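Write out a record, fold above all:
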Amino acid sequence: MKCFALLTAVMVMGCAFDPAGLGTAGVTPGDDPGDDPSDDPAVPVDGGGGGPVDEPPDAGSPNSPDSGAKPPDAGTSGAPDAAPPVPDAGTPDAAPPPDAPVPDDDDDDDGVPNDGDNCRRTPNPDQHDEDGDGVGDVCDNCPATPNPVQIDTDDGRADGVGDACDPRPRSPGDRIAVFEAFNRPLSADWNVALGDGDWSVENGSLIASGTIGQEHVLYFEDGFHYNAVVEADVDLIGPVNSEAQVGVVAAAVAATEVSFGYGCQMRITNDRQELATAELLDIGFDIRTVAAVPLRRVRTAHLSLAVDDPATRQSCTVQNELDPPLVLRSRLNRHDGGGFVGFRTNGAPAAFRYFLVYELGGPLERASD
């Protein structure tokens, strides 16, 4: 009984004590204190005194102001989950920083990418390769002789002329002075001395046409100095008369003056064909045969004229697809000065496939004349 009375007293004291005057804790103000609080819904109130108070959050709870954690995502509070981010599939890659190096796949800026450029460091948009060795004419050290490896030794002193075509492969100091593949219109360096209107460039060749018996001369000004080799491939492309001549020439003085110089030519006399060294005599390009040897009658040949210093030594070489090279040497008087190189035909329509001049660092290497 004593225990029961004590418990009753405690309960009465607890219900009656209300220092803030806000009503009985856990009961809506104005309700009968005798009612069972569990029958009425609780009304949320501020965390101030007298109202229902939430239990303090755990120390690690994200709602704790001291926890330092971010509030939970909206999805954890009962709100609808946010839509997942949409992949940015169509957005291009960001541009590189302004100072980032831009890859360059055309080193010589000729419009041809490096992977397909046959002269990567020398501009040649036409990519012409006369000898078909994979190296473009403008950077080929033997532009008319196939040499894909471009070997150039000259006893360890490479001079820029490949061993495959160097007139002096064991001596340095040579250079390619003129090369024309006739794959474009003639440059202003070429001049017509005879046969104006009968010279043209067609299908990769220089054509000398015109009436049978007419003389034609085309020259490259300031292209000749002593110790030089002048080369060309020639095709006879039409009927020839009984005194036809076709060849390459090198004159010792300017074409506007009396033209003393040198020539290497194929000469056709009736049914006889010869290789001849020749001397140019005057401004009319009259020519005197110095020496001649018979040739097999052919219509295609490679001609090479070499003039040494002192220029009393002259050699003429012919090569065709049927015979080994034939060399004819002769001696002439020296003609001082510098002049021109070029072509001469007389009574023989011809096509020249290329023209090449080597300027040598010294006399040709040969055992004897």
User: Anything to note?
Assistant: The CA atoms of residues 81 and 339 lie 93 Å apart.
